[in-house]
Amino acid sequence: MALTRKSRTAMDIFKSNVGCISTYSKKIDDMLDGGIRLGVMTELCGNPGSGKSNLCTQLCVSVQVKYGINSDSTGTAIYIDTEGSFVPIRLQNMAMTADNHYRNHNQIPMDANSVEHILKNVTYFRCMNVAELIACLIQLKQLMTPERNVKLIILDSLAHPIRSIIDGDHLTRHKYTVRIVTLLQKLASEHNCAVVVVNHMIAKVESPRNEAYCAPGNFVALGDAFGHMSQLRIQLSWKMNKREIRVLKSPHLPEMSMFFQITDDGIRDINEDELMDQDECFGTSQENLHSISNM
């Protein structure tokens, strides 16, 4: 009896999935066991302003820099924008920082990772609805060539086009979600590239059933069914006036969290002194609020 799909050994799968893209935060990379993994789909969820698009933009730079990707070679990126949240000047600023850093340390040839080179290697698509998004994903196969060497696909976001289906019921939205996720997972697996899908947090009364996927007072959009399809779920949020990144779901990582910061240069670590200073400021503001409430 013929197999419907070509089989692979466990060693083949293990070797093909080796590689990560750096977030440019050593602490986050350590928490994620190297960074954003190649060959799998990672869900990045959070409220507006939590830093999702900034992290996606940083990854578009990292994947092109020799020391930003733990793989045999650097690659290019594809950015699919469904919300209009892509900011080219932000990408340019991060690219300039990376370019200046490696030039100053003589770690790359002078023309290898110029700002222009980095910008040209991010292919951008603007999809206004579900139909355009699916058509775009189907056509991506034509771009997955050895010459282009795509190592990163960003979808920012999935929730927006799905929730914009005005005439669709729950089953219709679920059908489109499964279709899109299947296409993305196939691209990740067949071409050993990292796929990052941005998702939203929406308000809902917390229940024990959703506890594993919820922050207090919020839960991840697109429901439990999409949660089961995500191989790795990471949440960005604010906690005690600091940015926090948390692993919510992973087959190989423990659930844990880490503080980080977003600077003009991009995603960066936050040191202990800064944490203490922010804690003191937060504590002072809380005391002031308490004093005002007692007046």
TrEMBL record:
Protein name (Swiss-Prot/TrEMBL): DNA repair protein RAD51 homolog 3
Example of a GO MF term? ATP binding
- Gene3D superfamilies assigned to the protein according to its UniProt record, in alphabetical order: P-loop containing nucleotide triphosphate hydrolases (3.40.50.300)
What InterPro entries does this protein map onto?
DNA_recomb/repair_RecA-like (IPR016467), HR_Repair_Mediator (IPR052093), P-loop_NTPase (IPR027417), Rad51_C (IPR013632), RecA_ATP-bd (IPR020588)
- Organism name: Adineta ricciae (Rotifer)
- UniProt domain RecA family profile: residue ranges: 17-201
Q: GO biological process: what's one of them?
A: meiotic DNA recombinase assembly
Specify the domain of life of the species encoding this protein: Eukaryota
Which cellular component appears as one GO term in the record?
A: Rad51B-Rad51C-Rad51D-XRCC2 complex
